[in-house]
Design a protein that fits this description.
The complex is a heterodimer of chains A (288) and B (260). Chain A has 8 helices and 10 strands. With 288 residues, chain A is of the alpha/beta class. Chain A has 2 domains: 11-110 and 269-284, Nucleotidyltransferase, domain 5, CATH 3.30.420; 117-260, ATPase, nucleotide binding domain (Nucleotidyltransferase, domain 5). Chain B folds into 2 domains: 1-91 and 243-260, Nucleotidyltransferase, domain 5 (2-Layer Sandwich), CATH 3.30.420; 93-237, ATPase, nucleotide binding domain (Nucleotidyltransferase, domain 5, 2-Layer Sandwich), CATH 3.30.420. In chain B, the strands form 2 sheets. In chain B, strands 3-2-1-4-5 form a 5-stranded mixed sheet. Chain B is globular and about 60 Å long. The chains are: A alpha/beta (288), B alpha/beta (260). Chain A binds chain B through residues 34, 57, 128, 149-151, 156-157, 160, 188-193, 196, 200, 203, and chain B through 10, 34, 104, 125-128, 132-133, 136, 164-168, 171, 175, 178-179.
């Protein structure tokens, strides 16, 4: 089989500390993104279990598979879930969701939970878009900016590069620091042109890691310009898959002159967490 | 007197040899690749061979294109926009608007009867309005680039594409294939998408008849049809559209060498 370098690891998780049977309200948040799907199960607003997998060609199927996997190994069954909120690109196509809420609102809410109420700026770096969100101490959205038109600065762009350079995507960040000297960033914005540029650099004798460094730094700069437009207030959190790429995150920190907050769980599930928390609020307010 | 124009494009290198600023003696092109210098020499020699000429017969060489500053042989250079206007007006004197779609950039310009540029717009930042968009889409559809146009002409159904970005559009094409849309319809959707991008660029600058298309993408009949429909006017494809820039450079070379 041909190795697929862009493919990141799909996995599921259950909290060892929570017994769902003692919980009053069990809620579910489903984030069907353009590239990945997360299903998050919460017990009284605490993280109980989640699954994180690649989105397939059908949103309803991806949501369904994600739920099955999140429940796997727990003796929890779907009929015990009081309320389910769908979010993300495929949010209206979650067959078992009671309601859909935008991913902007869910990421702000999720970041508030995962990084703490001091978070004021959330950068969600998703598979096919990038959003900069300003929020208050309750995780409520104040304003946001978004790029969903162009692959530059999105996870998909990074996948294209991992594939081009034949480097597993999870290693991109680490390898990008194994250079003698930080190279200038790739100058093309467009991912298609950046690929051509990178091929040229490789032919000119640049080692892979140096090209990775140049691309990570170009991506960090691209995201920086989006953040600059909305303004960054501390604390600053990054959600989404690229949050796990230190090659981009460290360079962005340097450009911004501040440190990124540390999450209490996988930053990729923030949208799903927010959705599950909204579900809990809706149940408590009797709107479910 | 023989002059030469070299168009150092992002993908191909084109050479035109011109006699007395009037008669085209030869055209040749070569894939740029990694060794652009070697490719230029090859294209140049091929053109000389075709015309039965020697290097010493060429009085003046002018370059154009993205890599024009690094063109071998060239004594001077002219911008792509300037060369495109000169070349287009030479081939078709009624030209007032030129749309030039190359591998990595799209340009539109308005010019006067002398081939002088009045206004122009360039997209060199984004593949969505350039030839490489078509290449990506052909790859996603698993057809040859040359087949994409004829395939689209057979489409019976217009389906919209949401993605503008070439990277996202590639994924979308795969999704459309999974959804069992025909290759013909998807090929048409791809043409509609690129034509829409270029139309908005053309509208920004405005256009006046005659509108001509040059550059490699002009050889795609489905693209031409879509542009006609979008602009609601006739759009002419100049003969040997990918050589018009090099021709313009050869005309400038003749002028710089003092040909009246």
């Amino acid at each position: 089989m041909v190795e697929e370098f862009w493919r990141w690891k799909e996995y599921r998780w259950t909290s060892p500390d929570i017994d769902w049977k003692t919980a009053k309200t069990l809620t579910c948040g489903v984030d069907v993104g353009s590239v990945s799907t997360q299903v998050v199960l919460m017990a009284d607003g605490e993280l109980y279990a989640f699954s994180n997998m690649r989105t397939g060609s059908s949103s309803p199927e991806s949501a369904e598979n994600g739920l099955k996997w999140a429940l796997e190994g727990t003796d929890l069954t779907r009929d015990k879930l009081a309320y389910t909120v769908g979010t993300g690109y495929g949010r209206v196509n979650v067959p078992f969701a009671n309601r859909a809420i935008t991913e902007i609102a869910c990421h702000a809410r999720g970041a508030n939970f995962m990084y703490g109420p001091t978070v004021r700026t959330v950068l969600d770096m998703g598979g096919q878009d990038c959003k900069a969100i300003r929020c208050d101490e309750k995780g409520k959205v104040i304003s946001f900016l978004m790029n969903d038109k162009c692959a530059a600065g999105t996870g998909r762009g990074m996948e294209v590069f991992a594939e081009l350079l034949q480097v597993p995507i999870e290693k991109v960040g680490e390898l990008s620091f194994q250079v003698e000297q930080e190279p200038p960033p790739v100058s093309s914005t467009c991912v298609v042109f950046a690929k051509t540029e990178a091929s040229g650099l490789l032919r000119a004798g640049w080692p892979k890691n140096k090209v990775l460094a140049a691309y990570c730094s170009a991506m960090a700069h691209r995201i920086f310009t989006l953040l600059e437009r909305i303004g960054v207030e501390k604390d600053f959190a990054i959600t989404g898959g690229i949050a796990k790429n230190i090659g981009v995150v460290k360079r962005l920190e340097k450009e911004l002159g501040l440190t990124v907050a540390t999450p209490r769980a996988d930053p990729q599930i923030a949208g799903g967490v927010g959705a599950a928390l909204f579900a809990k609020t809706l149940v408590e307010k009797g709107k479910a | 007197m023989i002059t030469a124009g070299i168009d150092m494009g992002a993908k191909n290198i084109k050479v035109v040899l011109l006699e007395d600023g009037k008669k085209i003696r030869a055209r040749a092109q070569e894939l740029g690749g990694t060794d652009t210098r070697g490719a230029t020499e090859k294209a140049f020699n091929a053109a000389l061979f075709q015309a039965g000429l020697k290097m010493a017969d060429v009085s003046h060489v002018t370059s154009t294109g993205a890599g024009r500053a690094n063109a071998p042989y060239a004594q001077d250079n002219v911008t792509e926009v300037g060369a495109a206007a000169r070349g287009a007006v030479f081939v078709h004197p009624a030209t007032r608007t030129v749309i030039d779609i190359g591998a990595e950039e799209g340009k539109t310009l308005r010019c006067d009867a002398a081939g002088k540029v009045i206004d122009f717009a360039v997209n060199e930042k984004c593949a969505a309005g350039a030839g490489s968009f078509m290449e990506s889409m052909a790859r996603a559809l698993e057809v040859k680039l040359e087949q994409l146009g004829p395939l689209a002409m057979k489409s019976t159904n217009s389906i919209p594409m949401n993605a503008q970005c070439a990277v996202f559009a590639e994924s979308e094409v795969v999704t459309l294939v999974h959804q069992k849309h025909s290759k013909e319809d998807i090929a048409r959707a791809v043409h509609d998408a690129i034509a829409d991008r270029i139309t908005s660029m053309v509208r920004k600058v405005g256009f006046e008849n005659d509108v001509v298309l040059i550059g490699g993408v002009a050889k795609n009949p489905a693209f031409v049809e879509t542009m006609k429909r979008n602009l609601e006017t006739d759009v002419l494809v100049l003969e040997e559209p990918e050589y018009v820039g090099a021709l313009g450079a050869a005309l400038v070379a003749a002028e710089n060498a003092g040909v009246k």
